[in-house]
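Need residues for this backbone.
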């Protein structure tokens, strides 16, 4: 049993390193895309098409950005499962658990805020549908809609707001949470090793 838990703890650490790597990859490629992307309704789609077809390695950078974002969600979800199976749901793992859950939610938020940034028909109507769901939330639904859209209508202001949330708030948050998550795992590993050594010393 101890060997099984040890393997899962090692896997959790490896996954946390993968999470940081994916977060940085998404951030770096996002910065590169921002040099040419225009967060303006009607021009966002054309700017992304221009990046994909005219900018050297633009399609590759855009693809890496998308893949890293989706992989971050999957890896964060797998990490939660691995931590649970490794019995890392004790109170001593509180920092790792909270940061891991918040990181997963942040990764999902990054994906959600990106759905309208390409200003495509699919992204536009998907956003409108999900926006109506948000608006139905009691008490705060209308306020959230106004914050996201910038006043109610889905237009350039909406794209600018979601671009700001996506690129500055959530991206920075994801990297910060990934670092805190890894730090929490490493700290607990250090404490567990110390406890194991102390127990072995007492046994002797």
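Answer:
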């Amino acid at each position: 049993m101890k060997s099984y838990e040890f393997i899962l703890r090692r896997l959790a650490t490896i996954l946390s390193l993968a999470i940081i790597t994916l977060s940085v990859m998404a951030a770096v490629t996002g910065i590169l895309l921002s040099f040419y992307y225009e967060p303006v309704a009607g021009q966002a789609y054309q700017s992304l098409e221009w990046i994909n077809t005219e900018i050297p390695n633009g399609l590759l950078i855009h693809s890496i950005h998308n893949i890293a974002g989706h992989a971050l969600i999957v890896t964060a979800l797998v990490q939660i499962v691995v931590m649970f199976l490794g019995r890392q749901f004790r109170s001593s793992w509180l920092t790792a658990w909270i940061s891991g859950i918040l990181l997963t939610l942040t990764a999902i938020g990054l994906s959600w805020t990106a759905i309208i940034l390409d200003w495509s028909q699919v992204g536009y109507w998907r956003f409108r549908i999900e926006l109506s769901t948000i608006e139905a939330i009691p008490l705060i639904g209308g306020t959230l809609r106004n914050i996201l859209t910038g006043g109610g209508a889905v237009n350039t202001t909406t794209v600018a707001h979601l671009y700001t949330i996506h690129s500055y708030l959530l991206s920075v948050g994801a990297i910060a949470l990934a670092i805190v998550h890894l730090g929490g795992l490493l700290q607990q590993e250090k404490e567990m090793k110390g406890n194991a050594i102390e127990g072995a010393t007492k046994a002797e």
